[in-house]
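step: validate -> pass
step: tokenize input -> pass
step: predict -> running
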Amino acid sequence: MLPFDLPPMMGCSVSPKWDGRNFVFGGQSTPVLEYSENFAGWSDDLTALHEQAVSGGGHPIDIASRGDALRQVKKRLPRDKAVIMEAGCSSGYLIRDLVKSFPEAVIIASDIVKAPLYRLAKDFPGVPVMRFDLLRCPLPDQSVDVLVMLNVLEHIEDDLGALRKVFNVLKPGGALVIEVPAFQGLYDAYDAQVRHFRRYSAAELYGKLTTAGFNVRRKSYLGLILFPAFVMVKLLGKCLPVGRNKSIVRERIGNTRGNPLVKWALEFESKFLSDVQLPFGIRVLATAVKPGAIPKDGLNG
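step: predict -> pass
step: emit ->
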């Protein structure tokens, strides 16, 4: 059972109920509850292309990203049976890690893509999986303890509206763990092909989080050591026509996935610099908290 009620689906007056494996409503049963979609910033085809290139979520920067997110969730988790949601879960690599790391928590997976969510529901039958546009998030206000968004906000045109929606969904004292691509000046053909509306400066992200009502508790970057080489690649990419070819995503990811220097740099950073506020990098990191009372049993970590 979910610790809150969900709104009825369109055309049905009965609220969906989670029975531990499926959502049940109006005589129907489904492993994925579909409320709404918005393909302006992503698509199933892009998901398939990206995941074919990263081959099972094994790219070093994605591993480092998930590891950082798990550390932040642990620090902000108010209790064992808390509600953790990932917005933009795709095929669920972080969901897998969350389920393993926080077995007593209620883990909710959500995205706007369709096919990967049904695969995820099959692989993790005990995880409630929902499909919706974050701007139209159906979860009731003050229902989630920790919400994770990794490389999602840049795909949403109304990013401030999305942050305000997240703020409403979080409980008082709840936390948003967020990561976005860094530096708009590095926007190139790759960003255009993966449907980024923008890249972010740290000041812009922190400013929008504050405008949405959050207190920003953690500010940093991911990919400090790799940043000089990354800048060179991105500046070369800015010289390419946006529609040069459809394989740029596969090429860019494939060229770095098996690079031992990339792997070493990110492992070094994760091991020795994870608690340091880094001045620049490939991605901007933040942990933001909704003002309010912290649960009596306090925070872990």
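step: describe -> The chain is about 35% helix and 20% strand.
step: cleanup -> pass
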